[in-house]
Model the fold of this input.
Amino acid sequence: MVWLSLIATGGADEPVGFSGARAFRHLETIAALGPRPSGSPGMEKQRDLLVAHFQAFNAAGARVSRQAFQIRDRRTGQPVRMENLIVEWHPDRKERVLLGAHYDTRPYPDRDPVDPRGVFLGVNDGGSGVAALMELAAAMPGLPGPVGVDFVFFDAEEYVFSPRDPYCLGSNFFARQYAAAQQAGGGHRYRCGVILDMVADRDLEIFQEQHSASWPDTRPVVESLWGVAARLGVRQFVPRPKYTVEDDHVPLRMIGRIPTCDVIDFDYPQWHTTSDTLEHCSGESLEAVGSVVLAWLRGLE
Done:
């Protein structure tokens, strides 16, 4: 199988590779926390888990920061504290790439035909991108070249209780903050970005997202990623557009002016149902995505 041939152990003279088995263990740990909607105890536990995981790389150059913001719950009017997490790798490099994932889960499995107010674990939708970035961490200290990388975990992508509620609150806030910093003439610059969302589907097929493939500034990012997949023989990346998805890449590109593409398998029958569980996800799928992203990062000049 292709995914097994891509695992690298990272010996003394060998770059660290992406292990789907390790990534799946991270996914199991996340799933064990239960539902993780914004502002919930599950989200707090997950945030603590992620901060501890990435702070373990401090000596290797990782820098973890929190980006807090607040919204009002549309049901009650009460304030809800949100928090994006940012992990900077090689923070001295001014030219940077953003790898993002939302780490909240939808409050309820509203598309479930039997129990739309049941328990939603969000293992693939919410957990898989997080697990992939956790596994990518081991390879980041040795990342060659002039480009730095930021992992950004967006809160409140799906803090949605009714069709009128807005999506992508965390990425909107992040994009506004970044745009303001750029206008003021300070800080780093993002060359481009990649969002990882629903990337652990056991039956993985990642078509090119329509926005990402059609925007002139994001099309080269799509072509380069899918080109790496073709070179590695990762057939789960299908080199043609299929779905239009309103995801975190939209505010990053439209507000932050960061050319950002969405890597997502939107053909997931368990989407927003109580069946979005570990049994419908696999380490092989995580490895297919993680190996492509890692090889793509190592090829940046």
About this structure: The longest strand covers residues 79-89.
